[in-house]
Amino acid sequence: MFQGLFSNQLGKIRYAEWEWRIMRIGFAVCVWFATWHTWRPWVIGIRDAYEMKTANGIPSLFDISWIGQPVPTAILGILMGILLVTYVLGRWMILSTGGLSLIHALVGGIFASPRGDHHATQVVGLILVGQFAWFVWERFRPEKAKREGIDSAS
Fold this sequence. Notes:
Layout: E1 7-8, E2 11-12, H1 17-36, H2 58-61, H3 70-89, H4 93-112, H5 122-140, H6 143-148
Antiparallel strand pairs: 1-2
């Protein structure tokens, strides 16, 4: 389905399934660490209170402090683990990348926004949104675009 993902003037760049899996494993580790800031999944946590008046981004628009309570945090951690496994396996990529980008944005908003921390992990979120957009486009683009697009010449 995504064989025409990369191409250049020399033709399509093809990767074996095991190569894709290795790349996805590496990025999945980056996503976990960029979201939770820990390698230990049993100690994940997010703040449960912040000042909406001084917050930036999502937390300034919606009160998402409930996410920092123990049960929602655990649910998000488990859900993220499941989504990372489906991502590594290359299954349900629209759901996987969309869910991961949403969780990353919510948790990142609570971590970084109220304190004005650095936003160095935003590149991970940007890559997730880019992957999500690509998989949505690839799934729903018209047949004519598939036949006459950039992939048709290679």
